[in-house]
């Protein structure tokens, strides 16, 4: 139920681009895409592959979920970098103010 509720929220928060182009561009070459299509057309023989067919409908959800997690991690790294930069700038400001105070005396 939780996953379905999250999927509904994701659909509501889709950007216009995601609504128009729901599929992510592939980074595979044409030859790799053809090989992937051939493999996907073959019936699965392993038990895990058979079980995975039940969850194919969730693929779009998991792509979006993973995309959101990657963006979250990228934002965390950017925030850490900005905090570090802010700390450096504060240190430089303190040095400048200390130098200005010494020159006045």
What's the gist of this structure?
Helices cover 76% and strands 0% of the residues.
Task: Sum up the structure in keywords.
105 residues, mainly alpha, 76% helix, 0% strand
Structural overview:
The chain is mostly helical and 105 residues long. It has one domain. 76% of the residues lie in helices and 0% in strands. It is built from 5 helices and no strands. The protein has helices at residues 2-12, 16-20, 30-41, 47-52, 59-104. The longest helix has 46 residues, at 59-104. The radius of gyration is 25 Å and the shape is elongated. The relative contact order is 0.06. Keywords: Coiled coil. This is DRC2 protein.
Q: Unreliable runs, pLDDT <50, ≥5 residues? A: none
Mean pLDDT: 81
Number of distinct helices: 5
For this entry, what is the oligomeric state of its chains? single chain
Q: Roughly how many Å apart are the termini?
A: 70 Å
Overall tally of structural domains: 1
> Which bin fits the share of residues in helices?
over 70%
The structural class is: mainly alpha
Largest sheet: none
Which percent band covers the strand fraction?
under 5%
In angstroms, what is the radius of gyration?
25 Å
Global morphology: elongated
Succession of helices and strands: HHHHH
Secondary structure tally: strands: 0
């Amino acid at each position: 139920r939780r996953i379905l509720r999250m999927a509904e929220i994701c659909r509501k928060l889709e950007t216009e681009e995601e609504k128009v182009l729901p599929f992510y561009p592939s980074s595979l070459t044409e030859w790799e895409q053809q090989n992937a299509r051939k493999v996907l057309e073959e019936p699965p023989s392993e038990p895990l592959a058979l079980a995975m067919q039940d969850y194919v409908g969730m693929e779009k959800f998991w792509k979006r979920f993973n995309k959101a997690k990657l963006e979250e991690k990228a934002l965390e790294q950017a925030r850490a970098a900005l905090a570090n930069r802010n700390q450096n700038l504060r240190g430089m400001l303190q040095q400048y103010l200390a130098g200005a105070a010494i020159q006045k005396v």
